[in-house]
Fold these 2 entries.
Entry 1:
Amino acid sequence: MDCRAYHDAFEHLVSLMTALDEFDIPDILSTLAELCKMLRISKGITYFYDNPEKEQHCMGESFVCYDSGEPHVIVSQVRQVTPIGNVIVSNAYQAAGADALTEQERYRLEMVQRMIVTNLNRSRQSRIVEQLKYWDEDGYTNLRYYFKQISDMKEAGRLKRKTAARINIKHFSLVNQQVGRSAGDMVLRRYISTVVTAMGPGALISRLGGDNFVLLFDTDKLAEVMRVLSGMSVKYDDDQRIEVSAVAGMYTISESDNVPHPGYIMERIITAYLAAKRENTNDVVFYTKKLEEERQRSLLVQKRYKIGISNEEFKVYYQPKVDIETKTVVGAEALCRWISDGELIPPAYFIPELERGLDICQLDFYMLDHVCWNIRGWLDEGMPVVPISVNISRRNLFSPDLFTHIMSIIDKYSIPHRLIEIELTETTTDVEFKDLKRLVGQLQRAGVATSVDDFGVGYSSLNLIKQIPWNVLKLDKSILPDDENDMEREIRLFGYIVSAAHEMGLKCIAEGVETEAQLDIMKQCGCRYVQGYVFDRPMPVSEFEKRLMIGNY
Ligand code: C2E
Ligand code: CA
Ligand code: CA
């Protein structure tokens, strides 16, 4: 045989099989075929068995390295058992009548076979490692797998018309409590497998951990997936069933969306998911531009709030309350404005964000403190002073020191209690209702007036109002008569609310009155106090002081 050619081929095989990246299978096969021909081998075949027992029962996989079509007798066998018990066997055959191998050729053949066996083992192990890399202990693929698949799909241009989702089983801890841990696991598996069926072929599902999963499926299947997510009954014992549903954030990849990286999809489904968790109106929320803006805003507020407060960037603006009979200023509401980097940020931008946590409580006391400081100044300068109302968010209600805290600020500046009014919104829960009732009672006894803010929005009821000793009802602008087609009826209804409130001993003030026409309606309905653009917008303290000095319109 041509020694030179043999050495070249063998060296090439070694370099292919010890390559650090993926095996070049076609090149390996053609090099093996070349070597087989040189060594007069008619067929080379390798077997892989998970363990010796499977080898005994011939239950394994086989790889044909070369086959001339005339194998006859085995001339060499190499068998290796790996440290974890896998068995790899390589057999080489010669055709009938072929020249027997020389001693040196036998040696060379064995070298080639050892090379194959060792490297098959290596590739097998890397497959196992690969599996460990992409699967969790319960057999679900993990986030790394999800990302890899998305990258591969993007490369192949197969990401269009797909929908991605991040889901969480709703109240899964309750499910576990109700059916027990192991039945809970079964419920989870069954529910998830229904999700998988709904997604159809070619879909992806990976587990983030616990009862959190990410999905990717054809948008065509959206309706079916939504149906499963919105709830289904899952069997867990012979005849026991439990209702399971999910909270989900979704993102539908549009035709023009070029998904720069898998994280891009992830960010979107998480943003939508967090919105779904937050708002308890919709369990499934789709990612939109608006959600993204909210997220940016939320990040910005979180980032800048602490600095803003310590730099005194939050300013008190005052909006006069007017007695429409005398056209005089009878009070004002303190409203917060955030001036950051010369830009005025309206409350709608940051208050809801601060109300998600407890930062709002700090801001409310900051506002009360600044208001009291202003009033102190006016009193000391002998200026005319009117009662100022301060908004206290419901988020403060849980605090047992709330009343003491409010009073300590008012008293720190020795403000006559009648000059402060506290605006609170109604509550929906029983616990909050009790806290609210106690607080209003305490303030009442201390001579601090209280008003029901935003009356008419949400769950307002006169009955609820009756049970708490409020002083003022602030009628929200959304209930002001404004329907041109049904004006008369709306005015009558509004008038009833005003007189019912008066009958209960409450003062009424209408918020958001913008036009002279609306002002006339207020007169007609007997609503004597108004706060709105028709008189003034909220204004900085210096301007408000001028208004106080004038005192009327
Ligand atoms: P709110 O307590 O209902 O305050 C009244 C809102 O109506 C103010 O909005 C005011 O500027 C606006 N408004 C007054 N007159 C008119 C009008 O004629 N037309 C229209 N379209 N709007 C009018 P603003 O200042 O943007 O405040 C929005 C909300 O932010 C407030 O609603 C209140 O819930 C909250 N907020 C503001 N400052 C504070 C604060 O210091 N603490 C707390 N907890 N909430 C605050
Ligand atoms: Ca208010
Ligand atoms: Ca209001």
Entry 2:
Amino acid sequence: MKVLFLNGPNLNLLGQREPEIYGSMTLADIEGMVCEHAGRHNVEIVFHQSNHEGELVTQVQQSAGDYDYVILNAAAYTHTSIALKDAITGAGVNAIEIHMTNVHAREAYRRKSMIAHACVGSINGFGATSYILGLEAAILHHKGNN
Ligand code: DQA
């Protein structure tokens, strides 16, 4: 099984970005943790981050056929990007939406996700563990436990 982790804008700043909200782990720390977990489950993962909407759209498009799941922390583009929603639907990929924070407990504009209805499901609010839970969700969904 192959899983692509896609990370959107400003997630490259994790570790220094509002640590009281996002914690102290860097994106590289999270990638290491996810890699370790994936290894134990025989899952091949690729981890990618971009600050550019079009780059994320291209990555989603290109993932079709190559990956079983795309686990997507689209960050702020979650709340604005019809293009990302269309890419998920158009490419026909199994996407899982994840967020470190509980987006429903923050500013009102974070409660709306443009991509949620194109995704298999979503996980939010568990900090870096949201990445592990996203991977677990993909593994179980792949096995047919949905
Ligand atoms: C986020 C939540 C988004 O609202 C925000 O724009 C982010 C990070 C999260 O992981 O909690 O950049 O996706």
